[in-house]
Amino acid sequence: MAVDRSGAPADAAVEAPGGTPGEALGRPLGAADGDVPEEALSAPIGMPTGAPPPRPLDAIDRDILRLLQTDGRASVRSVAERVHVSRANAYSRINRLIDDGVIRGFSARVNHERAGHGASAYITLKIVQNSWRTVREQLRALPGATHIALVSGDFDVLLLVHTPDNRTLRELVLTRLQSIPEVLSTRTLLVFEETDLNTDHRL
């Protein structure tokens, strides 16, 4: 009996579906909103609170992650062929990575400038002690906010935003951010150029 790279039978009796990894989440990439239940589109992805730590990754898992980081629309069949395992094995591994919270979702990398967001900035915030959770929820509601982090050092929070223009950015900082009671001060760092490193990250 032939075996694949993982040692599993290559001609397993039960074959996994040959769709994209995104379909394992119930969210086929590129489907119209009407094709997917609303709750599936809005459901959060990630490891639930209190879940056990993720299982250790082996070389095949890391190869799968690198492939999906490069092309989140790759089919399970394509992933299996490129990492030299059966489709059933690839499907099982992808589902395990999703269940363990290693894969949090599948999304498109956007050129924000071409999408009409010509002004980007990192904004540092100092906030009231022990107010992180409250502030985080308010920052998540900001239009154009794409990354929020609680950090150590001279400030408490780092926020990345993309807005259509400098006027909108100024309005966001002076009106929206500074009206949050728990925000003590802000500092805005304009982004002149950015490079997406997602496909270059080596796991």
User: How many helices does DSSP assign?
Assistant: 7
The level 1 CATH classification of the largest domain is Mainly Alpha
Element-level helix/strand string: HHHHHEHEEHE
If strands are numbered along the chain, what order do they take across the biggest sheet? 2-3-1-4
Q: Radius of gyration from the CA trace? A: 21 Å
Stretches where pLDDT falls below 50 for ≥5 residues? 10-17, 24-48
> How many strands in all?
4
Q: Main sheet, how many strands, which sense, barrel? A: 4 strands, antiparallel
Please name the CATH architecture of the largest domain.
Orthogonal Bundle
Oligomer: single chain
What is the CATH topology of the largest domain? Arc Repressor Mutant, subunit A
User: What distance lies between the first and last C-alpha atoms, to the nearest angstrom?
Assistant: 32 Å
| Class computed from helices, strands and strand pairing | alpha+beta
Task: Give the CATH H-level superfamily of the largest domain.
Answer: Winged helix-like DNA-binding domain superfamily/Winged helix DNA-binding domain
- Mean pLDDT over all positions: 77
* β-strand amount: 5-15%
Shape: elongated
Q: Percent helix among the residues?
A: 25-40%
Question: How many domains, in number, for the residues?
Answer: 2
